[in-house]
Amino acid sequence: MFAGLPLTFITPWILAALALLPVIWWLLRLTPPRPQEIRFPPTRLLLGIDQHEQTPQRSPWWLTLLRLMLAALLIIALAGPIWRSPEPVQTQDGVLWVLIDNGWTSAKAWDAQTGAAEQILTSAEQEGRPLLFAATAEGPGQAFAPEAATAALEKLRALQPRPYPPQRSELSIGLRKAAQSNPPGAIIWLSDGVRSNGAFVRDLAAIAGDAPITVFTGLDTPMGLKDLRNDAEALSLTVVRHPDQKLGTANIRALDLKGLVLGEVPASFTAGATETEARFELPTELRNDIARVEISGEAAAGAVQLVDDSWRRRTVGLISGQSGDLDQPLLSPVYYLERALLPFSDIRRPRVSDIAEAVPSLIDQGISVLVLADVGRLPDTTTEMLRDWIRNGGTLVRFAGPKTAGGSDDLIPVRLRAGDRSLGGSLSWKQPQHLADFPEGSPFAGLKTPEEVTVTRQVLAEPTSDLPDRTWAMLEDGTPLVTASQVGAGTLVLFHVTADSSWSNLPLSGVFLNMLRRVLSVSNVVAASESPEDGSSTTSVLPPLRLLDGFGRFGSPPVEVTPVSAIAFQQAAASRRTPPGLYGTEDGFRALNLMEKEDELAPLDLSLLGGNASETPYPATDPLDLRSAFFTLAFLLMIADAIAVFLLAGGLGRVGLRGHGSSAAVAVMIGAALLLGPALGPADAQSASSDLDALEST
């Protein structure tokens, strides 16, 4: 600070030159201005001889003061004055480590964060100090080696927020190796103020040793969206904020694929709450057009939730092959199916009992999934209609039962054995079977298999070479419980048990609801890769279509992002390898969102850094470099000095004489033109000739 003002200097030692101002004043006072020159042409001997202007012996006091101010301004400008410069950080001799968070939580205040980093790097450049620069979201592939500050500045200018959280723990190994060869003299961490998973803070304290650690905090953290739900009444989301963020109202917008706003709702936080809910109570048809939900004014990838076909509510048609469903509803498979599907789909039931009429009527209502509960052999015309509907993207889900065990048509994913298999009872050697863990390639992968679920009866599939690839769920003895196959753009799914509790207690468990939800989530999603022409099995992949950047904007996929297999995509999380966005093709894609249901924006805990760490806020305002202003003032004073010297040297008089001469010359030229002009015209020439003839005649 300078005299209590927020003014500092880059090179303050230059201010010592201000002590030379008295010497400059003494020299200027003794140096007279240039003598006045008076022209003395012989033809104008008397003109201007009465000149009373005199050349002073010494410079006037005001000219001396002007030149002293000019010298002082130049000295101050060379010293590098900075207004509101940042507070100096604690450093020691050695390599300066500068770490910066560049995850999505830095996007909203990215300019403030990079501005502080640029000030630190510029100061290191002026000191000629080597430094190690690393960004926490760039991964372990960075060069953890000392470099010049100019190279670090180039890296900083090319840096952008990434659309995923900073992976700080990935840097621990590289920083530990760098500390062995080049121990840090000081560490500056430009953090985003958000806690992340991992033990990076503990590792950083161990790596730093006795070196001081300065952590910048206080960025404006953006809010986030998570836990997208599309239930019967509304599409709802959870809005998350940082605890240090001021309370206010968030404006949530729902947009379609063209970017048109379909709905807009406010979301307010109560005192002390970090989460609140936003609900879009729109008709199902309008909600199914929503492709993107975002927080207005929050330019960050975490403030965006993308919606694909798996989140849209399905219209499901239900047909049961059993009679007497209305007489005893608790024994009806439709009763269990309706209660399992109603939370995330719209149910349609036919008004007629004839299958040949019921199926076309449901298809005409625009259903995307058709569930047949113990429907045996379908009529041929209905079979062909359903096959065409499945090829165009429909999903047919069938449940076994006594009628299915007696025989079925070919709209099933696997060939079945005649009859059914009974497990347990007086005539069976087998005991009831439990569920096995779901295979990795199954849509049910990741669901927990409850131990209390048992199966006492099922229909068996014929063992074939492709049976394992078509099995989504199986029992502990390896027999299939759920099988599926792809038909065109649609899917055939078969549950080898009934939809009620007569063959198993699966419909009474919570996993039954999750299994049906997974089935509906893969319906109407076109496979991203075609099957080989030879019919061999292949793993479908989802190429990156449009990905989000750190600011939540759609952009072209980077070259380093490779296609993701459909199996791995189900468990994928937003990261450097799989950024959030849309994966697939224009005909069918899946959305990968950044924030998951368990994520939160917790404050950064720096207690593990120890006593060598200090916390400092980011500068509230940018520093102002005053060098250009002082140089400009010095240039203006230099011009004023030149004008003063010109006037003191009698320049004004010379300008006046030259002006009079020019005016006389112009007057002579104008008079000559006026006199000679009439003599040059043709009429005037004829008049002059007539006068001459008359004179001669006289």
Would you give an account of this structure?
By secondary structure, this protein is an alpha/beta fold. The protein has 5 domains: 7-82 and 628-655, no CATH class; 95-221 and 602-622, 3-Layer(aba) Sandwich (Rossmann fold); 224-310, Immunoglobulin-like, CATH 2.60.40; 314-521, Class I glutamine amidotransferase (GATase) domain (Rossmann fold), CATH 3.40.50.880; 541-592, no CATH class. It contains 16 helices and 32 strands. Strands 15-14-16-17-24-23-22 form a 7-stranded mixed beta sheet, with helices on both faces. Strands 4-3-5-6-31 form a 5-stranded parallel beta sheet, covered by helices on one side. A 4-stranded antiparallel beta sheet has the order 10-9-12-13, with no helix packed on it. β14 (314-320), α8 and β15 (345-348) form a beta-alpha-beta unit. α2 runs antiparallel to α14 (627-648), α5 runs parallel beside α6 and α9 (355-364) runs parallel beside α10. The longest helix has 30 residues, at 651-680. The chain is elongated, with a radius of gyration of 43 Å. The N and C termini lie far apart (104 Å). Residues 525-539 and 657-689 have low confidence and may be disordered.
